[in-house]
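Standup notes, structure subgroup. Blocker cleared on the FE2/S2 (inorganic) cluster input:
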Amino acid sequence: MARRALAWYSSAVAENGIKESATLSSWPSSAVAVSGVGRSYATNSHDVFNVHRDEAHNNNDTAFDFTPDNYKRVEEILSRYPDNWKQSAVIPVLDLAQQQNDGWLSLNAMRKVAEVLGMAEIRVFEVATFYTMFNRSKMGKYHVMVCGTTPCMLQGAKGIYGALKEHLGVDYGQTTSDGMFTLGEMECMGACVNAPMIAIADYTHGVEGFSYTYYEDLTPQDAKQIIDDIKAGKKPKAGSQHRSKAEPAGAVANGGWVPSQGTQTLVGPPPGPYCRNLDTEAEQQ
Ligand code: FES
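Run returned:
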């Protein structure tokens, strides 16, 4: 079904002379293979991670319950909301379940959240499916997300994606064979001033040690080095890889860091040319 839809789409593209988008042409085969239920094709890694497939590790019999410590955390989260609005806690409680469950939400993890909050299961499934930070498929220990929105794209996100794809040997929506890294794509993560960037969710230390770290001002080489550092058990530098924060010290261009060549931020009156003085012109008429 999915392959037929893809074949139809490809021929439509060819007939209409439409250039295939980078996302479409770079689909991993698994993205196509898993999308046969209810949709014709996956458009990004979120679609791959958020379509349920009954598998040995994720089915009606896969057990999930919060740990005693995490039940205490659930209680603390619920205390932030009125008693009759427990369902407002669905996002933080799902997040807690995901962190406990190594970065993804099994069917019964979502059902447990529904039970704890007194919600219809389908409502919880809907929330978990809609938000891209929730994963409904098993993930690697590290979820590496490449920002693919316009500012990052203009600053070289495709180069970052290409470098990571080659370095990890997996495409968007796939996990390395050792179960360490899942490569994904994410929309703008609000660090555009330091584009291009990636975020890495670390699920290796449970709820207590969970981290979600941004790495910014990346060159392809930086991106590969971050992966190598994680593999070596080191803690890569978070934030910008080339400046302190977001001061005008340079930018990534053509896959490399280019230091700024002079003032790029106004620290005095702009040098002109200026707009016409409309008040003076009006008086002269
Ligand atoms: S576009 Fe990448 S962080 Fe905004």
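Discussed briefly. Confidence is low (pLDDT under 50) at residues 1-43.
Next: hand off to the docking folks.
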